[in-house]
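Table 4 source record.
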Amino acid sequence: MTPQRAQALLTRIELLALPARAAPPTSTAAPAPGTGKGAAVKIWKIVPDQIDDPLERMIAVLGRSECERARGKRTAQSRRTYVIAHACLREVLAAELGIDPREVRFAQAKDPYRKPALTGNTQGLTFNLSHTRGLILIAVARGREVGVDVEWLGRRVVKMALSGKHFTESELSELACAPRDERDHCFLQLWARKEARVKMTGEGLRRAIDDNADPDRFCAGAEEPWLCDLELAPDHVGALAVQTRS
C-alpha cells in the first residue's frame, strides 16, 4: 500500500471524540487531554463495511505473522475484518511515528496472552486494538498504557454463567438492578469495561476465562485506571481504560 493509499485509508476512518464529561489523564509526552493532535489518548473507529479497498492491497502492508493469522480465520467475514483492523492499525501507528506502515514492528511476545507492543524507536507510543462484528476500535497513547474493548450487542453470551465467575459483587448488583430489556446491554457494557481494564495491564482477559479465575486479580496491586464508556453506534458498546500514572 503506497503512502497516498494509506492517507486515503486514514481519511475514511473516524477519530472518535471522548465523552465531554470526562478527560483522560495526560502525560509529559502528550500534555493535552481529550482527542486530536497532541492528545493523551486517541481512539479511531472503523466500520469495516465502509472500507472498500481491495483486500490484497491491505494484506500487502501486513507482516508475515499477521498474514498467517488472517489465513487461519474460519470465515471470509472474520478474515476481512482482521485484515482491515490490522492494516488500519499499521496506518495509524505509522502516522503517529512518521514512518511507512510496513516499517511498523511489533515485539514478539512469548506469552500468547500478552497484548502486542511496539519495538524499536517507539517514541513512547502504546496502543490497543479491539474488533467485533461491524466495528473496530484502535486506541493510541503516549507515555502510558491503554486498553480498549468493543462488543456487538447481538452477541450471544451465557450471561449468568460468565457473570457468576468473573464479575465482582458490585457488578453483579448493577446487572441485577438493570431492567430486564436492558440486561444484555448492561452485561456487555460491564464486560467491555472489565476487558479494557485488563487489556490495559497487558494481560489478556482470555487467560482469566481459561483459568476460570477473576480477571481483576491480574490488576491486583495496580493503580486504578481512568475508565470510561465509549459512545458508539446503537448496536455496539465499548470502554476505554488508561493508566493514570506514566
